[in-house]
Structure formats: structure tokens, C-alpha cells
Specification:
The protein has 415 residues and is of the alpha/beta class. 29% of the residues lie in helices and 24% in strands. Strands 5-6-4-14-15-16-13-17 form an 8-stranded mixed beta sheet. Strands 8-2-1-12-19-18 form a 6-stranded mixed beta sheet, with helices on both faces. The two termini are 35 Å apart.
Length: 415
């Protein structure tokens, strides 16, 4: 596949841009693959990429019932951070954050990673104590974060109101190398790299059943016919429970909608990401000038991908107190994504009761930031049949054994 470069742009300009190849090939299913991954979102594509890059497994199919990146990968707010409290979480998310740093160069595709910095506001004394604890934990984990006072917060975010009548800003947990990336570009970059390795990305192909013999997976039934494989990866976010049911086991997850919205574009006014757990909202500004705004999940199980008025009202009412200027903005669009939540708000990267069937799910509201690390860990699990260091603590058996990785505070606001 032709590499993208300034020289390639100049060459194609002389050819009226007639020589560009497709970013990824349009594939039809073969009868058999060494591995099949269900779900062509960021996590599924990253898994396929690292199967090839790290383990030399390239006879791989990535099956998607809709279009590539059309699920949660294209329906999030693009935040990247690794300032988690528990050691297994910090290791996994820091691996992902570090991979994002050089992902554009590695994939030869600009994912627009922007390490602009991320603030988690402390607006109660309880939050101050909690974030100071996280800073100390991050120091031991090798994750670079710091505690900053309200004056420094105001310097970083001039539009913020640090003297709110109900919730003044008492300080913040600051991760300077946190930030954002372009969600679609992450999926497209991984897809292009997978296709260049000879992998098949099969869109508009829904899995309707999982076939097994003698307790091990043998393939999947799809709307485009049966596909045989000795290894199956399930990476389907909010529909994990349904696909797991086809494979004959249940998951400790529930599906809920997570909503977000963007304002009309305005001139640059905020160049960091700000999360405010107490008022339950978060905001950043996109490269196009839109204020990207989100809050918590719906309070009931559902599979809708639409927004709702009451959720907009709740989130904006909270944020306007901290950012008064946004009261004058108009909403441009809103959307929803289906997220799968575990009881401890940590993911599952695990073997399953069906032999050679592996699952990656339960990312809840924090899936986008984990894509490279998730794919790295899932690929190692599928290639070796056993979890590596990154995934070792995230097995399904932890719920039976009571080994919870409690990140309910870190995931207390959708992000």
C-alpha cells in the first residue's frame, strides 16, 4: 500500500489525484481464517492490527454488521487520559496513552492526537482528598499527574468560573499529557494498516450464530455465510451480551445509552479538556471550534443511539454554572452511543467458557481512550490463549472471586 507523505501529495497533484488507492480493500469473506474478530470499531481493529504486528497472525477477518467505526468509536467525545486509581487500570490506560503518542507515525495516518492537557476539577473537599490520593497512586504507578490550585486552573482555563455559588473550584487533578484524538481517524488508520497486512474487513455482515464442537469454537454464522475459524474474538461494546448469548454464556454487564452534544463553532477559547464530576459534565473544544460536551449515562437500560432533551437540560444546567459563557451558545447536534457497564466499572478482557473464544467488553464510558492498549492486550490473549500482564487482572472470573477493580470514582462522570 502506498505510504502517505508530502512527496505522495505532490506526485498525485500532478496526476489530478487519480492514483490514490482505497484506504482499505473492500473484502468478501473467505471460507476460513486463522482468527475472526467480531466488531470493526476501534478496539476490534486495534486487536487485529496488533495480532499482525506483534504476533505475525495476518489471516484475520474483522466482521462488522454496519459500517466501520459506526458504533461507539464514532459516537464519543475523544478524551484520552490514564490518571486512574487502581494499578491494573493505570497500567492499561497508560499503555494506551503512550501508544497514542506515536500512533500517527506508526500507522502512517494522522489520528490528530493532541496532548493538550486534562483537568479533573475538585469542587468539594471530598474530591480534593480523593484526587490527592490519586496523585500519590499515580506517582507510584509511573503515571505523570499533579495537583494544582484554583489560580493555576484559572490560568489554564480563562473562561472558567472558579467562584461558583454552589461548587467553587478548589483545585484540580492535572495530566499534562492527556488530551484528545480524532475518533474516526483512529478507526480508519487501524483499518488501513490491517488491510495493508492482508486482513479482510467485512462490512454489512451480521453475525447470527456461533458454531462450536467439543467445547471449542469452530466458526461463526453470518448473513454472508458460514466462516470457519479456530479463534474468535468478540469486541462489540454495547451488544456484548447478545453475542455472548450466541456463544452460550452470560456476561455481568448492562447496556445503557451515553449522550453527548456539540455547540456551534466559536473562536478558540479553551485549549484543555475539563471534567467536572461534582456538577456531572465535561467539555473540550474541537479543532473546528465546537464545544464538545457530555455528561453521565442514562439511568435505565436501553439501546438507543439518540439524544434526549432532558439529558441536555441536566448536563448544560450543571456546566453553565462553571462555564457561564456557554449559556449563549446554540447546540449544533447531539448523539448517543450504547455502552456496556460492569459492576466495578472496569473492562473485561478474558477467556470465556467456550474454548478459543475470547471477549473484550465492559469499557463503559471510557472505551475510546483505551483503544491501543486494549487492542495490544486482546491480541496477546488471542495469540497465546492466556492473558498477558496488561489483561491478567481483567478476567471474567474476578466477579465470581470477588476481585473487583473498583473504578467507580474514576468513571463517576462519563468520559
Amino acid at each position: 500500500m502506498t505510504r502517505y507523505s508530502a512527496f505522495a501529495i505532490a506526485r498525485e497533484a500532478l496526476r489530478n489525484h487519480q492514483g490514490w488507492q482505497r484506504a482499505w480493500a473492500r473484502a468478501t469473506p473467505k471460507a476460513r481464517y486463522d482468527a475472526v474478530i467480531i466488531g470493526a470499531g476501534g478496539h476490534g481493529l486495534a486487536t487485529a492490527y496488533y495480532l499482525g504486528r506483534n504476533h505475525g497472525i495476518t489471516n484475520v477477518a474483522v466482521i462488522e454488521k454496519g459500517w466501520l467505526g459506526g458504533g461507539n468509536t464514532g459516537r464519543n467525545t475523544t478524551i484520552i487520559r490514564s490518571n486512574y486509581l487502581q494499578d491494573p487500570s493505570a497500567a492499561l490506560y497508560e499503555k494506551a496513552r503512550s501508544l497514542y503518542e506515536t500512533l500517527s507515525q506508526e500507522l502512517n495516518y494522522n489520528v490528530m492526537f493532541s496532548p493538550r492537557g486534562l483537568l479533573m476539577l475538585a469542587q468539594t473537599h471530598h474530591e480534593v482528598r480523593g484526587y490527592l490520593r490519586t496523585v500519590h497512586a499515580n506517582m507510584l504507578q509511573g503515571v505523570q499527574t499533579e495537583w494544582i490550585g484554583p489560580d493555576r486552573v484559572k490560568d489554564l482555563v480563562p473562561i472558567i468560573n472558579i467562584d461558583g455559588p454552589r461548587y467553587p473550584v478548589l483545585g484540580a487533578l492535572y495530566q499534562a499529557r492527556g488530551g484528545t484524538a480524532r475518533h474516526d481517524a483512529v478507526a480508519w488508520g487501524y483499518a488501513r494498516a490491517c488491510s495493508a497486512m492482508g486482513m479482510d474487513i467485512i462490512q454489512q455482515c451480521e453475525v447470527t450464530g456461533v458454531r462450536a464442537e467439543h467445547g471449542k469454537v469452530t466458526g461463526v454464522e453470518t448473513t454472508k455465510g458460514f466462516i470457519a475459524t479456530p479463534k474468535l474474538g468478540i469486541v462489540v461494546a454495547g451488544h456484548s451480551g447478545q453475542v455472548a448469548g450466541m456463544a452460550g454464556f452470560r456476561l455481568p454487564v448492562e447496556a445503557v445509552a451515553l449522550q453527548a452534544l456539540v455547540s456551534e463553532p466559536i473562536k478558540p477559547c479553551m485549549d484543555v479538556v475539563v471534567m467536572a464530576n461534582t456538577v456531572h459534565g465535561y467539555m473540550s473544544q474541537s479543532d473546528k471550534g465546537e464545544m464538545v460536551i457530555g455528561g453521565g449515562t442514562d439511568g435505565f437500560n436501553n439501546f438507543t443511539q439518540r439524544g434526549s432533551f432532558h439529558h441536555i437540560e441536566e448536563t448544560l444546567r450543571a456546566l453553565i454554572e462553571t462555564f457561564p459563557m456557554i449559556s449563549r451558545l446554540k447546540m449544533l447536534r447531539q448523539w448517543g452511543g450504547i455502552v456496556d457497564m460492569t459492576g466495578d466499572r472496569s473492562p473485561i478482557i478474558s477467556k470465556t467458557p467456550l474454548g478459543n473464544c475470547f471477549i473484550n467488553c465492559g469499557w463503559g464510558t471510557g472505551g475510546f481512550k483505551a483503544i491501543p492498549g486494549s487492542g495490544w492486550a486482546m491480541a496477546e490473549l488471542m495469540a497465546k490463549g492466556e492473558p498477558g500482564p496488561l489483561a491478567a487482572d481483567f478476567g471474567m472470573e474476578r466477579f465470581r472471586e470477588g476481585r473487583f477493580i473498583d473504578e467507580s470514582v474514576a468513571a463517576g462522570v462519563a468520559h
